[in-house]
């Protein structure tokens, strides 16, 4: 009862915060198969009818009445079917005006230039101040100068910019992995995996559309190693970008509300940058941006990498690397002082992660061994889970702590039998729904281990969504 009361209080506080204190979106980005449509927002309010009029005004060929829906007005909810119809209209208008579809498929062997990892905010601020004395700054330049000044003046004021709810009885720090004020309730680990499944797909599509180079790192690489799925005990996703690409996100896309491609789900994602990202913040803010599911508070952490004059650790370089070779390397780090060589990362590998196209670093084993030791890819019993290789899944020990000794693990179609799933319907469903992704990763991983052979054909197309939107039912209540 005590936990329930605390959670009710958190949910109420979250609702009040969003209603009265939270920023109205700067823009709405509507994801489709061929484009992200940017919709301006009425800063005086965010009621649905205001947004609909903006859609109509922005697209002259779109009839306002066509967007009316009595059901929407009554419920103040936009259903997935409503969004599909809207997407179809926007796509039709876009193509009718002569624009070509954007290819949102990820490219092969992507890299970022070295200069993208250098950023000097004080110099940028000084340059803008000097320019303002000679000529009139544009609105964008004025806003950027104000931002740089604010970030410089108040960088040490905040302990953490991205906050989480805290209650003293949360002994397992479960609430640390929800972003306030979007948390409404604690969700199950299975529901969390479903949310992450949708977050990953939309994040990489967003970055591809806007020319941002991003990749998965840290613990999610362990997930990729075993089955290209998020580890069941991993509560979020960690991605990285260059500091210049983070600055691009901050200047152009901060405080954006992204509508998920309605063919995939009915989620809304909030993209927000830490206003102190230009500075290290004395170790107070390690996370530079977040891509947040607004219905749950589950998120992708975004960290920028910098090339700075700081001395890297000695273990950054391979033991057999010569001094001459070391001098040729470009060392980068995040605000948490995790170091990488750019040759560890680039050119990025295109892969399939959680069924979607994604990028991972080039030297996977080098990074995993440096951060986690070789146990990261050899340990098969951890966090009350055991890895069962024949089904490529981490199975909770409470279901079964080893592969079951049964005559028929799989049926004639390759799906798990209920006996083969330790008589657990959830495990059977987990395997059956992700079976195609598991088999695809096995093929990719075999080529990777066999001399790092070409895997491009396997990641050319992503798989259909296989973890359905867990909260879509809300729209039907």
UniProtKB/TrEMBL annotation:
Pfam families named among the record's database cross-references: LicD (PF04991)
Residue ranges crossing the lipid bilayer per the database entry: none
InterPro entries: LicD/FKTN/FKRP_NTP_transf (IPR007074), LPS_cholinephosphotransferase (IPR052942)
Domain LicD/FKTN/FKRP nucleotidyltransferase: 207-328
Record GO biological process: glycoprotein metabolic process
Record-given protein name: LicD/FKTN/FKRP nucleotidyltransferase domain-containing protein
Top-level taxonomy: Eukaryota, Fungi, Dikarya, Ascomycota, Saccharomycotina
